[in-house]
TrEMBL record:
One of its GO terms (molecular function) is DNA-binding transcription activator activity, RNA polymerase II-specific. Pfam families: Fungal_trans_2. Residues 17-27, 39-68 have a biased composition (Polar residues). Signal peptide: none annotated. It comes from the Eukaryota. This is Zn(2)-C6 fungal-type domain-containing protein. Residues 1-85 are annotated as: Disordered. Residues 28-38 have a biased composition (Low complexity). InterPro entries: Fun_TF, Sterol_Uptake_Regulator.
Length: 399
């Protein structure tokens, strides 16, 4: 039996995955049983070590035997950190995020102010957001400075692990006070999943396809949480970002290009009648695949209907948000139909290829899908491969 996919950080820490249903249930139970946070803010990895104040020592008495003290010196203890101590490494990452990354990560022209001002302000009150912010900043510096990327990759991994630890209790106990923090965290963690390196020091950390599975888990997790915090987010400074999760974007009933409509009609038939479906696939999976294909068509129509300039990045995430857990499990098992649909999703993601956090992830993902997919299904990769090439060529001409 195949093991359900988990995100890399949770697997490394042997912790329940926050973004799976089981993980959410465990976190909710842990939150209700705990009366105080279970983490130690002073342990290694935390960037917010509490200040330990020194109140002085008792002065030496005049009649003490100084010779004895010389023979048996007291063990030296390190002095407590000064209240004026600064962590320059963390300040470097924060400065880079505010001055550089906030302009390079944006998902819309209107979002510049949000990422430059609002998100850092939220991070000052929520440590898990601050650590996620610092991790994204470290990955961006690694992207900009290839000769120093190993150091920044390691710093990014440290902050990402800490962010996931700290946000678990908040995610299990959403309130008005942490609603905006949880919502923006869902964006940051997806950027981390896509931008994180697939290998460090020659050791494979993750595959591009597993990063896609990780993103889908994260989107599904935040979608399960969104109903309980949406009314608070709508009242706050992140309200306009809800459009990336909303289902009320108007779209045309059919595609402008009849050939695209014809392709999706054939794709829907394939998802319902692929040769191996009768051998090892339950009827529930057949329905799941067909529903995923129909939902993917709807996402294509939404992207096509977004007017130029309304959203700098079209709503490319809608499809992943709505995928059922059974589909994600089959994708983790490298089933042919989910692999083909992920290849078609990559066409939508290529709309955001100019952002640094996607980088060469699309090419690597398509390459991995081609390697995993049985030869008899390779024809289903021709259409998405050609569409990605056309989008890339159009963008090169516009640049």
């Amino acid at each position: 039996m195949q093991e359900k996919p988990k995100c890399r950080s949770c697997t490394r820490r042997q912790a329940p995955c926050t973004y799976t249903n089981d993980g959410l249930n465990q976190l909710a139970s842990a939150a209700s049983a705990a009366s105080s946070p279970s983490y130690d803010r002073s342990q290694p990895g935390s960037s917010f070590t509490p200040i330990q104040r020194s109140y002085g020592t008792t002065p030496s008495r005049p009649y003490q035997n100084h010779a004895a003290q010389t023979r048996r010196p007291s063990p030296k203890t390190p002095p407590p950190p000064s209240p004026l101590s600064l962590n320059m490494a963390h300040l470097e990452l924060l400065h880079h995020f505010v001055t550089v990354t906030s302009y390079a990560i944006t998902t819309g022209r209107i979002s510049h102010v949000v990422w430059h001002d609002t998100v850092p302000h939220i991070a000052l009150s929520h440590e898990f957001v601050m650590h996620a912010l610092l991790a994204v900043s470290a990955l961006h510096i690694a992207y900009l400075r290839p000769d120093q990327r190993m150091s920044y990759w390691k710093r990014a991994a440290m902050h990402q692990d800490r962010a996931l630890q700290l946000q678990q209790l908040a995610m299990a106990n959403p309130t008005r006070e942490n609603a905006d923090a949880l919502f923006i965290f869902s964006f940051l963690i997806v950027y981390l999943a896509l931008a994180s390196p697939s290998s460090v020091d020659g050791t494979v950390v993750d595959t591009p396809l597993h990063a896609a599975i990780q993103c889908i888990h994260m989107f599904r997790g935040i979608r399960s949480l969104l109903p309980s915090i949406r009314h608070w987010v709508e009242e706050g400074p992140l309200a306009h970002l809800l459009v990336l999760y909303s289902g009320h974007i108007k779209s045309n009933p059919t595609f402008r290009d009849p050939s695209t409509e014809d392709h999706f009609s054939k794709l829907l038939i394939f998802c319902s009648t692929a040769p191996d479906l009768n051998k090892d696939t339950e009827m529930d999976d057949v329905e799941s695949f067909a529903a995923a294909a129909s939902s993917l068509r709807a996402s294509y129509l939404k992207v096509e209907s977004v007017l130029e300039g309304d959203l700098y990045t079209p709503p490319i995430w809608h499809w992943a948000v709505r995928l059922p857990s059974s589909f994600v499990q089959r994708l983790g098992e490298r089933h042919a139909v989910p692999l083909v649909l992920i290849a078609h999703w990559c066409v939508l993601l290529s709309q955001a290829r100019h952002y640094w956090w996607i980088g060469d992830w699309l090419d690597k993902t398509m390459g991995e899908i081609e390697a995993c997919l049985p030869h008899e299904y390779s024809q289903w990769l021709e259409w998405p491969t050609e569409k990605i090439r056309e989008i890339n060529e159009t963008r090169r001409r516009s640049d």
